[in-house]
């Protein structure tokens, strides 16, 4: 069979492969960016499901995007300090489909998309069919996008169709953009007529006060991407875009070609859950639980890794970015970690847009799916794997703190 150039050119997803191996019994997995299934509000969702099915046609019919759900999402976003009208909400099958649709809406032959040097890989996959040129901007794992570099590129004439950014709870870096940086970014967007796609997948999972969304600072410059995946359940596949009303019709046409509509059942279910008024308590519980895990990860990193390692300290989201000394390549390290220590993480290389000049010694630790009582042991296993990796290569152990972290070997 003759495959399209797009399909033939696709590399098998390392993440999918990892998901399979990392879910083997006994493995503590920081690999995949999943929320904890134990925290899904199953009873409330069961009640919402019963209520939806009890009223014919019970969300089982084809349907138009549910106006009531849009209203509930407007309320949800007000918790994020974002104000918009239901007519601006475009429902999609997860944020991922929203990104794909934006690619189809905004990109054409020869288009450019600006991304950080280390960026959510799902975004690159989402726009791969349009094959835009990716203009990467340096980014700092601790501070986020380098605005001087961005300004330089824009001043030099770069005119991307949009800049893709995760200002809050960055995946994979775990950083958040400060208020002053957000202001400067908006100034640049105004000056250079730049459209920003703000991916806020984890924006409601914050553990400390956060800066306002870019959308709320400059609605005319920003398209907002939201999702219920991390705060309710990814299997619902309910996401949304906040766009100028004029874009709803073309987006709807593009979406029709994909799946007609976001699962009507999921829309009704999400709407019933949000209407039940339980989201506030649920979010508070999620924040408490994930804050605890974040704190445990950071404490365990402190205990197990020496001064040669650095990591981000997320104030929101589900990810910590760990940089080990340069000679440790995190891809083969993962093999050691899985085989010997039964622990998994995601090699940072997956997220690197231009591989030149970026250390291959980076790891993304996704702590959302790791139960609190396993976090410390999981991080200790990573440190032991790194130490063994160094020992096997005849290097002096510089990664972990040996006195505080006796090696198993
Ligand atoms: C930053 C970011 N954007 C988008 C998505 C896709 O989310 P969804 O499940 O809503 O498609 C994810 C999923 O992990 C994500 O981390």
Poorly predicted residue ranges: 401-409
Any idea what the radius of gyration is?
22 Å
Instruction: Using the alpha-carbon principal axes, give the shape.
Output: globular
| Counted beta strands | 15
Structural class: alpha/beta
Strand order of the largest sheet: 2-10-9-8-7-3-4
Distance between the termini: 50 Å
Give helix and strand order, one letter per element, not per position. Answer: HHEHHEHEHEEEHEHEHEEHHHEEHEEEH
* Beta-strand percentage range: 5-15%
Q: Count of DSSP helices?
A: 14
Helix proportion of residues, in percent? 40-55%
Q: For the report, how would you describe the main beta sheet?
A: 7 strands, mixed
Mean pLDDT: 93
Distinct compounds present:
pyridoxal-5'-phosphate
